[in-house]
């Protein structure tokens, strides 16, 4: 893997054909972090542990969050992180958070990891109306928050 300065430089290259390493290709890229609020954190953590573990993130201590899932570069720089906060007034929305899988097989692997903790699972399935390469699974946590894990090689 490249050093942090190279990762930052590559992310700013706007896809000009430069070879990229796996961590960069499958990081959130332009997103620094996500703060996600739920009514009852204990109800959703079994799914989130399974989901983020299958996506290569690990639980990390963060002072203010109920749970944080993170991934680091080889030199210890946190690349992606997803913070979960509990807020009794939090409402479920129609928004769907979609995460990128490395391959169609990775989508299947994630589906196997979440099957005992997610509800309303749809797929995995190919949806060519989205893109000929699209393959994904959508599901909800126990509170009804919507997620998706997909593989797609959209081209300009």
Helix content: 10-25%
From the N-terminal CA to the C-terminal CA, the straight-line distance is 27 Å
The first-level CATH class name: Alpha Beta
- Work out the number of β strands: 8
Low-confidence stretches: 1-26
Order of helices and strands: HHEHEEEEHEEE
3D shape = globular
Range of strand content: 25-35%
Can you walk me through this structure?
The protein has helices at 4-11, 22-25, 41-54, 104-114, and strands at residues 34-38, 58-60, 67-72, 78-86, 96-100, 119-126, 135-140, 146-151. With 156 residues, it is α/β, with parallel strands linked by helices. It has one domain (31-151): Roll (2,3-Dihydroxybiphenyl 1,2-Dioxygenase, domain 1), CATH 3.10.180. The strands form two sheets. It has a four-stranded mixed β-sheet with strand order 1-4-3-2, with helices on one face. A hairpin with a 5-residue loop joins strand 7 (135-140) and strand 8 (146-151). The longest helix has 14 residues, at 41-54. It is globular, with a radius of gyration of 16 Å.
